[in-house]
Amino acid sequence: GGGGGDGDGDDADKPEFELEGTGDMAADRKGLLKRLRDAIGIDLTKIAIPVYYNEPTSFLHRMCEACQYYSLLNDACSERVAAADDAVALRLMYMTAFAIVPYSSAERTLKPFNPILGETFEWTTRDARFVCEQVSHHPPICAGHMETDTWEWWQHKEVKASFTGNAVVAPPMGATFVRAKRTDDTYSWGGLTSCVHNILVGRLWVDHYGKFTVRNADAARAERADVEFTQCGWFSRGWHQVKATVYARDGTPAYVLSGHWNDKLYYKRAGAADSTRVLLWQKDTRRPSDQLASFKGFSLHGQQLNVLDDVRRATLPASDSRFRPDCLALALLDYGKAGREKWQLEEQQRAERRERAERGDRWRYRWFAPVFKRDVAAA
After folding, report:
1. pLDDT by residue (tens digit) across 195-245?
2. What is residue 140's DSSP assignment?
3. Which of 97, 79, 59, 359 is nearest to 246 (CA)?
4. Of the four listed, 21, 85, 199, 256, which is most buried by Cβ atoms within 10 Å?
């Protein structure tokens, strides 16, 4: 499964706004705020933001980081669950938990770098392999795939965000799929609205809210899970709260998941008392002992993903995000070099696009192909 289009798009080569960093925090913030006031309603993917507002990663890193808790999929597709009397509903409960917990890694307020067309990111563990690729530049779309012996996961996401006055809002765009190999059942779900608050005034904070449904791709199999992330209200009311109801194939409620998507998830049988809730998932709050200042707020897993050690240097392709010179410079807090390297990468991408246009050629995906398109964002 993958994105759509040929990757180049019909938009102009350059963003609508260029905003270079000066290296002076106060001056950069003042300049950004002035420009954003003139950009209400404009797609922010077309605005060049100073690297001071970036973290030293790519959006592809974020896609991979969100798969940290794939052990929930291992549980969903385990022999233990397959042998249960309510195997279908129990499997879906674990699938639903996996659909919820990726947002626990999405509370940092600094922006990852936009991936270059054809950029990749890989992650290999003892039982799984993850790979993703930026398959389109306009609109920006990334496609990812992860697989073990018992399940297969794939996802495509489009990034679009708009400035609303004192917040940046990103609507749900894209879809996620998981196939349980034992039964050949495929489940799919959409996403949430994400909002970064207090862009102009106040402390930055992130909220994810909305509803989506995890459902079997086979319409004849009616099991589903309805998920709702509560939007934060006044005085932080409801912030981080999530609830999901898992329905068996006959339409009856089977399980209820509840908790906070950035901390813990519990489950219980539908209709049972809250006192019977059992802890299903808890966020790993470990921090690296050698945490760099540029990785403030990263989990141990998040920073380890970005390490470019000798093994990764020798085995990863040159297209991997970890080799981006702007990310490497920003990791060392060299904002001037990071800004220059970012500009050079973007100029190179524009030049390559012009060359393809002159040849009448189109960008070709390297690791993914658009097999089908299905909009489940509103499911």
Report:
1. 999 887 788 899 999 999 999 999 889 899 999 999 999 988 899 999 999
2. T
3. 97
4. 21
